[in-house]
User: What shape does this take?
Amino acid sequence: MAEGIDQSITAEALLALEGRARSEGTGLEAADLVGCWQLEQVWPKGRLQASQFSGVLLRGLAAQLEIREEAGALQLRNSVRLGAVELFFEGPGALKGRRPLLQFQFLRMGLRVAGRQWWERALPAPAPQRTPFFALIGRDASGWLAARGRGGGLAQWRLPGQHGLS
Assistant: This one.
């Protein structure tokens, strides 16, 4: 695994946690998700090994998921950055169910260069049966969040400054 990654977070550990989340729920609420989460590891669907290539690439592009709560509703912003150039997707989200699912829609995408908006485009809402989601697996007090995406892969993010390395 890459330097600086918490090696105690394995696919096996996440699968065990996911089993508990499916049967007992996670107890996560919107306030638990608020923050600017930096992508740390990804596991492709059906794999027990984290994808080193994807992880290094996405960390190198400073991939992050920002979750804000505004007027009682969740707002998500997913972005990647290369130098001063940032590509982002934004839209509303909501927690559904006991596990819960973090459902979202990216209704806007844009490009910022050196902090200045250069381009923006509205995106069509997905069909209801194709709404993207993250099935939340867990959030640890050491500052990590894990979820399974609609496509079946696992992802693990970390809040900046909270490493929890052993």
Notes: The longest helix spans residues 11-24.
